[in-house]
Amino acid sequence: MCHDTTPSSLPAPGNYQLGNSNGLKYWDFSNAASKTDSDVRVALLTDIYGCNDFYQSMSTHFANQGWQSHLIDLFADLGELPEVTREAAFERRHKLNDQECCDLIAQYIQDNNITAVVGFCLGGNFVFELARRNVKVNLIAYYPFPAGLPNENGLDPAFNYLELLQTEVTVLIGDDDDRVGLENVTKLKTISESNAALSVNVYSNSKHGFLEDLDSEDPTLKQNAEDSLATCLDKIS
């Protein structure tokens, strides 16, 4: 699991309203003021476990910046997990149609004037796909899988197009992310050195899901998480 606990430095999940944009379900954490006063509209795409407390807290954190904040529920039509295990999450994940999901997300961005998208893990791969499609919003990907993820209607692996990517995307990843693959992290960083559209921030000694290290007692890991969150917020705005 990318995130099974919520760092104490993040707020408790706030109130939300359920929304639907042409079939794409989302949880709207925006407060009344941000709906009328803010030009920043951020959408969060989760990992395979869906809208758990961590992602609700992140969306609340975005809302607390005074932004409109939507948490996209990719799995709304597939039901709750029968058990919170990696096996159950992957079984449900494989029922998603990745191409169709990205079609819906791209249309949702246009219809709702979204200005930034933050994706985690699977959601990070969807962020890569939005960049490939030249969707012009601020794009941030936490620990995506540039070598691709299996799906019956799968996306083109990001490594197939990153060298020619023209739409900017920011990647936040640890150099000890053995789920993504250490060689894939290195390759991702190497590509970014010759393509200015791809900004890759690699954090030493950090693993997959390292944003949870906001609570780490290791000062280096804690600093990595804090720096990545500050970078994420800066890129959103």
Distinctive features:
237 residues, 8-stranded mixed β-sheet, alpha/beta, globular
Notes on the protein architecture:
With 237 residues, this protein is an alpha/beta fold. The protein is built from seven helices and eight strands; from the N terminus they run ββαβαβααβαββαβα. A hairpin with a 2-residue loop joins strand 1 and strand 2. The longest helix has 18 residues. The chain is globular and about 45 Å long. The two termini are 28 Å apart. The model has no long low-confidence stretch (mean pLDDT 96).
Quick synopsis:
The chain has 237 residues and is α/β, with parallel strands linked by helices. The chain contains 7 helices and 8 strands, in the order E-E-H-E-H-E-H-H-E-H-E-E-H-E-H.
List the total number of helices.
7
Helix content: 25-40%
Mean pLDDT over all positions: 96
Distance between the termini: 28 Å
Kindly report the spatial arrangement of strands forming the biggest sheet.
Answer: 1-2-4-3-5-6-7-8
Structural class: alpha/beta
Number of strands: 8
Catalogue the unreliable spans.
Answer: none
Radius of gyration: 16 Å
